[in-house]
């Protein structure tokens, strides 16, 4: 399955949504459109060409037509048909990529209260996919209902429903690419989270999961971009950041709670991953909270 990689933020913005019926022999007109056009065939058949690529959509299949490309029906509908369509505005896709090549489990920098800008990342929408009625019909019908009664209180729920629809489509893309190596990757991640507070040995993990060290390392690297110890260090420091808000825990206790018994190593690793030493982070966190309370 091929997916469109769309950069976020910002999130896509809904422009229009509706359900339309077409009689037999209807042919889509030619156009170049400035918005994304998500089309779901609810009943019948739909023929559409994007630039020079023809598509035939059957019942419960969807396609995302891209802005700025030439679209036209290359063949009339052979039967009466019903379509859902949804237009949304967003920047051009960064690329088209196969779902199995996406590192779904890749990690992002540890988030802290210091962050003033959102992290840049991507969402992935299947270019062409088959859905079930239960996946798309309730969301689309509710969006149409709200759109047909355009009042202020419906605008935010409409955008939220668009987000819900896009999440469903991304999950569909991911589910079609769930390989054996990704299953192993999930087992490794679950293992690391469950044993975060214990000393880590790669050979022990290999024995517990019943795979070779090389195979486990290869699977995790393929789907996250990280070796097991690097992944473990990330989730340990992420947990340490959360524990620093507890004034009853010393820094050494926090290090031990996340499985790092070498205090000096904990200090170095925290500073490397967060950007400040844990003591300084804690002090600035408390100062931030005091200022926030005094301003209220």
UniProtKB/TrEMBL annotation:
Domain HTH araC/xylS-type per the UniProt entry, residue ranges: 186-284
Record PROSITE patterns: HTH_ARAC_FAMILY_1, HTH_ARAC_FAMILY_2
Alphabetized SMART domains for the sequence: HTH_ARAC
One Gene Ontology molecular-function label: DNA-binding transcription factor activity
Pfam families linked: HTH_18 (PF12833)
Keywords recorded for this protein, A-Z: DNA-binding, Transcription, Transcription regulation
InterPro entries (UniProt xref): Homeodomain-like_sf, HTH-like, HTH_AraC, HTH_AraC-typ_CS
Protein's UniProt name: AraC family transcriptional regulator
């Amino acid at each position: 399955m091929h997916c469109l990689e769309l950069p976020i933020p910002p999130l896509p913005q809904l422009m229009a949504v509706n359900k339309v019926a077409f009689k037999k022999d209807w042919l889509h007109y030619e156009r170049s459109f400035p918005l994304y056009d998500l089309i779901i065939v609810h009943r019948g058949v739909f023929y559409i060409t994007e630039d020079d690529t023809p598509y035939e959509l059957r019942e419960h299949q969807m396609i995302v037509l891209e802005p700025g490309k030439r679209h036209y029906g290359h063949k009339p509908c052979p039967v009466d048909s019903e379509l859902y369509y949804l237009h949304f505005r967003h920047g051009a896709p960064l690329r088209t990529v196969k779902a199995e090549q996406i590192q779904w489990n890749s990690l992002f920098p540890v988030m802290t209260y210091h962050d003033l800008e959102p992290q840049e990342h991507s969402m992935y929408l299947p270019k062409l996919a088959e859905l079930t009625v239960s996946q798309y019909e309730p969301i689309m019908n509710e969006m149409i209902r709200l759109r047909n009664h355009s009042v202020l209180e419906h605008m935010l729920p409409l955008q939220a429903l668009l987000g819900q629809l896009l999440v469903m489509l991304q999950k569909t893309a991911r589910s079609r690419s769930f390989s054996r190596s990704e299953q192993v990757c999930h087992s490794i991640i679950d293992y690391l989270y469950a044993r975060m507070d214990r000393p880590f040995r790669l050979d022990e993990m290999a024995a517990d999961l019943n795979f070779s060290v090389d195979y486990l390392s290869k699977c995790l690297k393929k789907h996250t971009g990280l070796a097991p110890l690097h992944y473990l260090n990330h989730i340990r420091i992420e947990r340490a950041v959360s524990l620093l808000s507890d004034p009853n825990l010393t820094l050494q206790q926090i290090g031990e709670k996340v499985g790092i018994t070498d205090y000096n190593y904990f200090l170095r690793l925290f500073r490397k991953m967060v950007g400040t030493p844990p003591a300084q982070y804690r002090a600035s966190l408390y100062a931030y909270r005091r200022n926030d309370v005094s301003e209220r």
